[in-house]
Amino acid sequence: METSDYDGYTLWGHAILQQEGEGILQPERYAASGTITRGGKLIEASGILGLFDSEEEAHHAGLDWARAWVDAHG
Questions:
Q1: Gap between the Cα atoms of 28 and 16, Å rounded
Q2: Domain extents in the chain
Q3: Partners of 45 in beta bridges
C-alpha cells in the first residue's frame, strides 16, 4: 500500500496479489484499487481498476485514480 497527501485528502494506492489456478505456476499479477480519506474518514473507494505486472504499477494506478477523483470532486 502506498499513500500520498493531495489537496487535503490522503490517497491510498493498493496492490492486491492475484493468485490464479491452484498448483499452476504463473507470473504474479496485481489488481489495483484506490481509496480516498479525509480526517480519518472514508470519502471514496474504487473497485478493481485493472491488473498489472508489478506491485508498483498497481500502486500508481490506484493513486492516479484517487488524484483524478479529487480533481473532479474536490
A1: 10
A2: 2-73
A3: 35
pLDDT at position 74 is 72
Terminal alpha carbon distance of the chain: 23
Residues 9-60 pLDDT 10s: 999 999 999 976 655 566 789 999 999 999 999 999 999 999 999 999 999 9
Contact 29, 12 (CB under 8 A): no
What's the grid cell of residue 7?
489537496
CA distance 14 to 23: 26
Whole-angstrom distance, CA of residue 51 vs CA of residue 28: 10
This prediction's pTM: 0.89
In contact, 30 and 19? CB cutoff 8 Å: no
Which residue type is seen at 28? Answer: E
